[in-house]
Design brief:
- Monomer. The ACDS complex is made up of alpha, epsilon, beta, gamma and delta chains with a probable stoichiometry of (alpha(2)epsilon(2))(4)-beta(8)-(gamma(1)delta(1))(8).
- One of its GO terms (molecular function) is iron-sulfur cluster binding.
- Pfam families: ACS_CODH_B_C (PF19436), CdhC (PF03598).
- Its cofactor is [Ni-Fe-S] cluster.
- The protein is an alpha/beta fold and 275 residues long.
- The chain has two domains: 11-179, 2-Layer Sandwich (Bifunctional carbon monoxide dehydrogenase/acetyl-coa synthase(codh/acs), Chain M, domain 3), CATH 3.30.1650.10; 186-263, Ribonuclease HI, Chain A (3-Layer(aba) Sandwich), CATH 3.40.970.20.
- Helices cover 27% and strands 23% of the residues.
- The protein contains six helices and 13 strands.
- It has helices at residues 89-101, 121-125, 131-145, 160-179, 222-231, 254-263; strands at residues 23-28, 34-40, 55-58, 69-71, 73-80, 106-109, 116-120, 151-157, 191-195, 207-209, 237-241, 245-247, 252-253.
- The chain starts with 22 loop residues before the first strand and ends in a 12-residue tail after the last helix.
């Protein structure tokens, strides 16, 4: 895709697994700590504006890490643009998973505070000796795939004390996002939202996102879906008209059934949101 990096970048690498024996280093994951977070910044911000393309690393880099070692990792992206708004943060954040899996030799799993990355020995032997390569490739993909992002910078942290300090703030941000939907319920809206972002891993997967039901990944709520569908109508999040109520108690709607059937290649014909 580009000669700028010591690795290939392509959707064909989605689903690639880096096994323990092939791993050079593990970042975050169940036995360490980490998170990924996107923060929107007003494009007119003058005190601390987004410095487009800037990369900051706090802590050891890949070249300083021991082979077979395990390290914490926080990935924070600051974005701005005329169309960028707070409701888009979760959507952009979730795409970090996609884009880093485009990188040959890098495995990215999960989201929010459950992220888990592995970098292969082969990738390091080919020159992937700094996290800056990963950050710059990811920022490039963000801007090319999500054109409403006009400016982006990345801050990666591999120092445990700094990760733990920033993690408290990240938890508060995640909680504030989730809190927004707690007083809004399915019966209050006419439109739900769908998401097929995970179909690269699960080809028939279709998430139906409602005020009472977030995406199965846990990272995208109804407000996020609405914002994403607005700025990227051809993207993986899209509106679903509820249609007729088939069973209010179990949460079955004709519009949801029709959309789920068409997007899952017929695997799902009836969806009961509350069962």
């Amino acid at each position: 895709m580009t000669n700028e990096f010591p690795f290939e970048i392509s959707p064909m690498f989605e689903g690639e697994r880096v096994r323990k024996d092939d791993m050079y280093v593990e970042l975050a994951g169940p036995k360490s700590k980490g998170f990924e977070l996107v923060r929107s910044v007003d494009p007119d911000e003058s005190i601390n504006p987004v410095d487009d393309g800037k990369f900051t690393l706090i802590g050891p880099d890949i070249a300083d890490m021991e082979e077979g070692g395990r390290y914490p990792l926080a990935m924070i992206y600051r974005i701005s643009g005329e169309l960028v708004e707070g409701d888009l943060e979760s959507i952009v954040e979730r795409r970090n998973h996609d884009f880093q899996n485009y990188i040959q030799g890098v495995m990215h799993l999960n989201q929010r505070y459950d992220i888990w990355l592995r970098i292969s020995k082969e990738a390091v032997n080919k020159g992937l000796d700094t996290l800056e390569h990963i950050a710059r490739a990811t920022m490039m993909l963000f801007k090319s795939e999500l054109p409403f992002i006009e400016n982006i910078e990345a801050i990666y942290i591999t120092d445990m004390a700094e990760v733990e300090k920033e993690l408290d703030d990240a938890f508060a941000i995640y909680e504030a996002r989730d809190e927004r939907t707690r007083d809004l319920h399915d019966e209050d809206v006419d439109t739900f939202y769908g998401c097929t972002l995970c179909q690269s891993f699960a080809p028939t997967n279709v998430c139906v996102i409602t005020p009472d039901r977030v995406a199965l990944c846990g990272a995208i709520n109804w407000f996020d879906g609405r914002a994403a569908a607005k700025v990227d109508p051809e993207g993986p999040q899209f509106p679903i008209e509820k249609g007729e109520v088939i069973d209010e108690f179990s949460g079955e709607y004709s519009g949801v059934n029709e959309k789920a059937k068409s997007l899952s290649s017929g695997e799902y014909e009836r969806i009961k949101l509350h069962s």
